[in-house]
């Protein structure tokens, strides 16, 4: 109940503040957000973080798949083998169709 009350109070406060500041303030905040997002330093940092995330996710994937071994159903084991083969063959496209940039 406490969390629900906190949520409703936050929602009401956001609504009141949003209506008071109006569309002009919203547009000003959006322009600022776009400028920050287009900043080369921010873009480089975001790209670096994405690369590190992919690197650590790859490590975690191999550690988990090595430890799980034969304790998973055959369909899952086959999928893991397929993914391993793809990563060993140097495929740069992941399951979502995005490239390794």
What does this protein look like?
It contains 3 helices and no strands. The chain is mainly alpha-helical. It is elongated and about 60 Å long. The chain starts with a helix and ends in a 13-residue tail after the last helix.
Write a concise synopsis of the structure shown:
This protein has about 100 residues and is mainly alpha-helical. About 80% of the residues lie in helices and about 0% in strands. The chain contains three helices and no strands.
What topology does this entry show?
Layout: H1 2-38, H2 40-68, H3 74-88
Mean pLDDT score, rounded? 78
Total number of beta strands: 0
Radius of gyration: 23 Å
Query: What is the rounded distance between the termini?
Result: 46 Å
Overall geometry: elongated
State the major sheet. Answer: none
Report the portion of residues in β strands: under 5%
Specify the number of helices: 3
Order of helices and strands: HHH
Supply the helix-strand structural class: mainly alpha
pLDDT < 50 stretches:
none
Which descriptors apply to this entry?
101 residues, mainly alpha, 80% helix
């Amino acid at each position: 109940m406490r969390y629900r009350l906190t949520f409703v109070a936050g929602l009401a406060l956001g609504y009141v503040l949003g209506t008071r500041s109006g569309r002009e303030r919203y547009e000003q905040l959006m322009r600022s957000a776009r400028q920050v997002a287009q900043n080369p330093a921010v873009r480089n940092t975001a790209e670096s973080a994405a690369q590190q995330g992919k690197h650590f996710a790859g490590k975690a994937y191999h550690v988990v798949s090595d430890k799980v071994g034969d304790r998973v159903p055959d369909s899952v084991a086959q999928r893991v083998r397929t993914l391993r083969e793809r990563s060993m063959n140097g495929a740069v496209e992941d399951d979502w169709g995005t490239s390794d940039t």
